[in-house]
UniProtKB/TrEMBL annotation:
CDD domains: PPAT. Pathway: Cofactor biosynthesis; coenzyme A biosynthesis; CoA from (R)-pantothenate: step 4/5. PANTHER family: PHOSPHOPANTETHEINE ADENYLYLTRANSFERASE. Coiled coil: none annotated. This is Phosphopantetheine adenylyltransferase. The record marks H17 as: Transition state stabilizer. Reversibly transfers an adenylyl group from ATP to 4'-phosphopantetheine, yielding dephospho-CoA (dPCoA) and pyrophosphate.
């Protein structure tokens, strides 16, 4: 069974993430969405909320693709998370050249730790390449319309959270 791991903070999940998940699901038998517990980033949504949003979106994608897709919180090294879930492939999404430079460095480090785990890069579709969770949150904070960047459910969660 080919198992892929797509890690990220997903704070919140965007249409760019959904695009990568949909396409990664075609490459593996099971796709694990690694939800990073990154306290340094100070996420807007709790871990439980991020996992719930992912599970809601992934249930639809799993049904559409026929691939098992599950959310898995993690706080250890990415390569250790890959071992924990039995992943042979790490999936990373790229938006721009700047992403590649960082990701290239990460691949080198991960391969130094375990060269049996491959990393696959997927480019988001052109219409999703500029989407970043950080920017989506900023637009929402300033009262802008984020409906082009997230699903309706995530948009409502953002509005509700920022109203507090």
């Amino acid at each position: 069974m080919r198992i892929g791991l797509y890690p990220g903070t997903f704070d919140p999940i965007t249409l760019g993430h959904v695009d990568i998940i949909r396409r990664a699901a075609a490459l593996v038998d099971k796709l694990v969405i690694g939800v990073a517990i990154n306290r340094d980033k100070g996420p807007l949504f709790t871990l439980e909320e991020r996992v719930a949003m992912l599970e809601a979106e992934c249930a639809k994608l799993s049904e559409q693709t026929g691939t098992e897709i599950v959310a898995h919180p993690f706080e250890n090294l990415l390569i250790n998370c890959a071992h924990d879930v039995g992943a042979q492939i790490i999936v990373r999404g790229l938006r721009a050249v700047a992403d590649f430079e960082y990701e290239y460095q990460m691949v080198g480090m991960n391969r130094s730790l375990d060269d049996s785990v491959e990393t696959v890069f997927l480019m988001a579709e052109a219409r999703h390449q500029a989407i970043a969770s950080k920017l989506v949150k900023e637009i929402a904070r300033l009262g802008g319309d984020v409906s082009k960047f997230v699903t309706p459910q995530v948009r409502e969660a953002l509005i509700e959270r920022l109203a507090r």
